[in-house]
Amino acid sequence: MAVAGGEPTPPAIGLGWEYDLSGAREEFLLPDPLPDAAVTAEHPFYVRLRVPWSLVEPETGRYDWYEVDRIVDAYRASNHVVLLCLYGGNRAVNEAGDVPTSKRPAVVKSWLDMLRAAAAHFQGRVLSFEIGRAPNLDPEWAGTGVTEYAYFLKHSSVTIRSADPKALVVQGMLAIPEADPEEALGWQAALYRQDIATYVDALPIRLAPALPRRMMIARAYGLLLDHDPSAQVWSVEEASEAGSGRERAADLMRQFVIGQGEGGDPRDVRPRSRRRRPAGIPRDAARSAPALPARLCAAAGGRQSGAEPGGTG
User: Fold this and answer.
1) Fewest CB within a 10 Å sphere: which of 64, 159, 219, 255?
2) pLDDT of 178-200, one tens digit each?
3) DSSP 230-272
4) Domain spanning 15-298: which superfamily?
5) Does pTM top 0.70 for this prediction?
């Protein structure tokens, strides 16, 4: 990522931080980037910001980017690539705080207006826009509601690309719970049957800690190859149950290495902005040799007060 006046490029190895701006943590406890000579524009870290819609639009039609700008600018100045996840309902737009669906056209319009403003505001500063968070667990989008999320996702993608044609559009993170991982994967397959592949550039997944990581990453990637072989799988909101900061760092690095053990080419871990076969995978071998999944782990705490060792889920 070029820091001054340049444009971010797709990630190589996505190791970095995650911020949750939902209010679970006070802003002054969130860690600032730590200067590190090893983090450069050629070898950056990544920061994924989970931003509730209600935070950036406190009143209908009035956008407040201050909190997000504060983090984006600080991390870009320290050679981090920014991934933005916008999610949730907004009681300023809809009293019930409902998520956008085709049955709520006014809410959909407000959401798209906000997305258009966000894409214009962060153009050249944010690599990707993630649409919603864990949509497969939301009552409006779970099960047969997958068609509603597909409607929402497609309109969101078109809106972002109309404002920033170079931005990557990322599906809302697929949450894969320990109780029923097959249901989550089935939901994702149903979403692909809604012809969403050309609208997105990556599939983020969050694995329950108890699930067999190597197998589940391979399952998710196999599903992606069946429907959208030009995209990438990202593993996000990694949590560590280890004790000390040093132990959490070691555990997250172990998880990262597992992600690299899927027969991938370390030169090919980037989400593609348009429909292309992943580089380094021959056309006739795309289904037999999974590429290295791009991976976004939350960096472990311990070096700075308030550092978040993993996603809050």
Assistant:
1) 64
2) 999 999 999 999 999 999 999 99
3) TSEEEE-S-----SSHHHHHHHHHHHHHHHHTTT--TT-----
4) Glycosidases (3.20.20.80)
5) yes
